Amino acid sequence: MKSIMLPAFFLCIAPLLPSTVMAADACEVVLCMYGKTTGNGGGKECSSAEHSFFDIVKKNKHGFLPDHTADARKAFLLECESADPDIISQIIRQFGRLRG
Length: 100
Hints:
A hairpin with a 2-residue loop joins β1 (about 60) and β2. This protein is about 55% helix and about 5% strand. By secondary structure, the chain is mainly α. It contains five helices and two strands. α2 crosses α3 (about 45-55), α2 (about 25-35) crosses α5 (about 85-95) and α4 packs antiparallel against α5.
């Protein structure tokens, strides 16, 4: 009975523990990537947002798909409803098809 209780306890408590990996908010990514397009990098504060952007990569069995990657990155940035679509287009034109 004790051997069943301990794993059950950990399964119940696991969702309550804070996650060490936090995904960046889409608006934060838009802000940081727009700064990067204008030559004003955000420094250490923007490193996780930039990683979140460049971690969005689409591949198939033949390799990297730049157009699909750009579409997926654009879809992520569009989750920020307050972002200007022109700014998002500028970010995608400059960084959307690059490999992370």
